[in-house]
């Protein structure tokens, strides 16, 4: 597992290293061309050394690129073309370095025009290889005449006039997921570039099941605990916000994950209309009705004040907490205490308590907290996700979790909780996911 992670890390260095030969080649060409003027002819003396640096950087870029290709998330033909261009480029760079060496120059010196022509050929090959690499990362059409001719959809005049998929969902998916799931780079063999490809899915089957978000792999992945290895997006990329997750879930369930549907064709709650407006850049006040009515579909807590206690938020931030806003109306919070942060729990209990009803995600992992420290948990009755991993808590935590009737996921990895307590916890009605490996119960 460690070797695999090292391999993945080394492969991801390829985009960094691959720019070195480009920069070196640019300097070589500059020196080569300036050398035609007698006053700059001395610059050509640096080209032999630069040639060896070009070869070395090209070789390392190729090695790390090969490691990256083993990830298996890139289409075969493009990878093959990119690899062969890189191999030929490396061979040519080695050849030019040898031709520039003193041993060769003592026997025969290349005519200046021939040398310049060879460097131009290498520059053209580098351009081709770079284009193939860009196609792998951004899609084959990222630089094409078709892209220039492509007509962008005009922005709708109002929320009601917007087509849900075409104007809202597709831009959202491309913005959030398109970097890894495009025609050039299909992680898990999935592309989000159009609805047909979403419905076709990837390695694990269809990404969407129209009308059933619970069976839709895409919805399942974005709702997982961020510590889960299947959580999307991966590699530390910014997760979807609660509003974006709500919107995607609603689209799959109520709009049947279909194209060509506007809000006028669907039953839309004020909350969904508000989220769509924000995605389109049309805030409330442009004829868009806003409301704090509760809908089971959105899983918004009943009777919740619109605003959370701003003073309590500032107090938590001053103590080292991270507080993220997930939804604006009403304000729903994601609160995280970074691992190893020392805080005065007794002093902060009033602030935590005042924000408890607005908090739906709470992360307290790795802070040496006991059940005595966590008595305030009983007030977090709207909590949906809770991380207590790497804390010395045991079975005594169960009574503190009983009031959390909305809790769906809890992480107890590396705690002292027993198998019996875990079985009881998993049998609770609302909890769908319990993470508990590496527990150290007696």
From TrEMBL:
Residues 177-233 form the Cytochrome C Planctomycete-type domain. InterPro entries: Cyt_c_Planctomycete-type, DUF2231_TM, LRR_dom_sf. Keywords: Membrane, Transmembrane, Transmembrane helix. Residues 13-137 form the DUF2231 domain. SUPFAM superfamilies: RNI-like (SSF52047). Gene3D superfamilies: Ribonuclease Inhibitor (3.80.10.10). Signal peptide: none annotated. The chain crosses the membrane at residues 16-34, 46-69, 81-99, 111-130. PANTHER family: CYCLOINULO-OLIGOSACCHARIDE FRUCTANOTRANSFERASE-RELATED, F-BOX DOMAIN-CONTAINING PROTEIN. This is Cytochrome C Planctomycete-type domain-containing protein.
